[in-house]
User: What shape does this take?
Amino acid sequence: MTPLLLAEGSNAALVTFAIYTLAVFGIAALSNQLLKSKSFMSEYFLGSRSLGVWAFALTFAATSSSGGSFTGFPAKIYTHGWILALWIGSYMVVPICTMGLIGKRLNQVARLSGAITVPDVLRDRFNSQRFGLMAVVLIVFFMSFNLVAQFKAGALILKVLLADVQVFNDFSAVVAGWTSDMPFFGSDGKYLVCLFFFGVAVIAYTTYGGFHAVVWTDVMQGIVMVFGVLILLPLALYAVGGLDSATHEMSKMTTPRRGYATVAVDDRATAPQQLDKDDWLKFEAADGTRVFRVAKPFAVPADAAEIHAVELLEITTPDEVDRILAGSVPAEFVDGLSVSGFQKPDEKFGTVTIIPSAGSGGTTFARGDVLHTENQAGDDKRTFQVAADTIVPIDETEVVVPVVESADGKYLHGMAHGDLKASAVSLQSVSYVYGADQPGVYLTGPGPSATDSVGFLSLSVAISFFFMWAISGTGQPSNMVRLMAFNNSKTLKRAIFTVAIYYSLIYLPLVVIFCCARVLVPGLETEPDRIMPEIAVYLTGRVGAAWLGGLLIAAPFAAVMSTVDSFLLMISSAMVRDIYQRNISPDASEKTIKRLSYLCTLLVGSIAMIVAINPPRFLQDIIVYVGSGLAACFLAPTLFLLYWPRSNEQGSIIGMLSGFSAHLAMYAAGMFVNGSFFRPYRLFEFDPIIIGLTVSFAVTYFATLATAPPSEDLVRKYFYRRKSQ
Amino acid sequence: MSASTETGNEQYELDPVFLNSRREAKVIFGVWFLCAIWAVPVSYLLGYNQTVTPGSVETVLGIPKWTFWGLFLPWLVADVITTAFCFKFLKEDDLGHADDEEGPAETAAAASQEDAQ
Assistant: This one.
């Protein structure tokens, strides 16, 4: 990819971002006008139940398709191939399920009770303050996590979007200088700048405009997303020479190998001082040229003859290597450097976190040294070889050492360090643990996996996902609140149809586009989340419309924005409506409620933005945990209270808590079985969502039958109507 | 309480919105189940653990055979079913009126204006 192309694309991205920001502020101003003429609370949090077809359909679709649809999902297609069509397959019924299963009935019950929020509905349906409060606590708990994760996603996307804009880079460097003495802000000036701009824009328009601003920006963002995909599709097919050609190329592909290597400085005159992730290296071996991509940036010191422990990715498909060497795919080789000593395929690489013993500060673990470690319990003894020189800092409680672990436990040389205490080990196979050296693995199930020995999508996981998207999506409070906001049944049926077509136009083409991207842009396993902007800039550049690339890569930005604003409003509505107005001050004036709503939205957003300065590492894992956790809590009680006259407060509360606990238990068990909270235990190989929902449905049902039936007044109010004469 | 009940001088019947919604929900579960038992088994039988000869793979319209028969085709069918469900089966019930809404007359006017579009 030429620098010129990148620059053109990025300038367009900058213009796009500016237009976007202006547009959302304009929308917020318009919707603020509506607030002046209607009941504030109902308008601010529910749009006065007046959403028509397009607004309802696109806000529903855009909120459901979070940033993940345009970053994580394309990255997964790129990494695992056609199997992602099955992973996302249940989206064929997501609109009819998530909107049709409870839409009409929930909307009616919300009108009957005058409910504005989801906890409102739960509370009023059983006249139960504690049920409403429990729902508030769970929503605030889950949504707060997710809000921070989405803020991070938004900042990361913006960072990619503006990566080559000079003004942005200069300003980021200044910010990094300001914050260099403040550890809280970290060292990534670009991330800080992006987080600030993204956060301020979203918080401002959501606070000022309320629900209608969120909905109208969702509509705009939904349109950008679908047009982005529909423009990319023909460009990708044209570039790859047709889908048949792409599929046949993919049938020859084998997974790349990742590991450490030694890089020799052959020519000091031409060798660069710094290598980045986009750089390529080659090694002239006896049996042909081997091609590597830099997996982690590294510096080339002025006097170095060799650089050790450089993290690289080796392309293993012969046809792909030939095309890269022939210059028919975007790859620029670095002169003056060559690769030697890449690892054996049966080794693992990664890090071990050592707890230094007293007085060991200043010790050096040299490359090649052998470390004998045990965990703190003393029952996991392992041996590693140091991959890069590491000095143990004085007064530090932990030191992270890059290491290699051999499959046979044999290490040929190096000084031995024994009895070391290790608090964490993070290793990855050099080869994929499923699908390595297996042509066709990108076309078939279960798909290649670097970490899972049964492949990416085993049958049980495929079933779980078919269940998860369609059924658990129904249990998301952010979806439910939209189902309370449409104006009539006719709108619902037209919106289900619209969203069904919308998803068909988004998800199937995305699978095709990013399978083509596997062929067109090789070696991006180093940072697969970048594939969407990379392919957008590459494809539009090929047809001489680099400016379009900037517009297209705004699609993921739009997606994450539309998710963040919805979550922000859900949390503030839970606080103002469900806690303050309904429990603390029922007679509060509209003026007080209005000020409190603005203040709360502003505060929640600001706190989330501050926490996102140092966000949790496991972004996608948090999103999955929150989405499935909310479904495990809310789906069963909601379905029962809408469709079962016998359902009662006790059964619903116990069912909600059971779903929450069962789901949490699977994640907690993961800490003991798999060593991480975010690698949950899979009972019978099923995802925790299946366990959570099964427990929640069963417990709600039996606990309801075991407790007293609800009062006749409540049943009559929600399930009966006066007979017409 | 039964399908129809009486309190004082007033007689009640089961709410048709509840009855229609419940009936529609059952059909939706059926559609989900149908799609699940089509997509997952077909994809598994045709697409899992297959030996692929590099460069000569069976495709339909450029799509791997298992993906076409297991996902693209049922997706198309699901869209047809969704369309039929929306326009032939889903009842246009009156969802009532909340206190915070515009008056019924205004709502009705807005709905008819939307129909005209």
About this structure: The mean pLDDT of chain A is 83. Residues 256-340 of chain A form one domain. Chain A has three domains: 3-244+442-616, 256-340, 348-423.
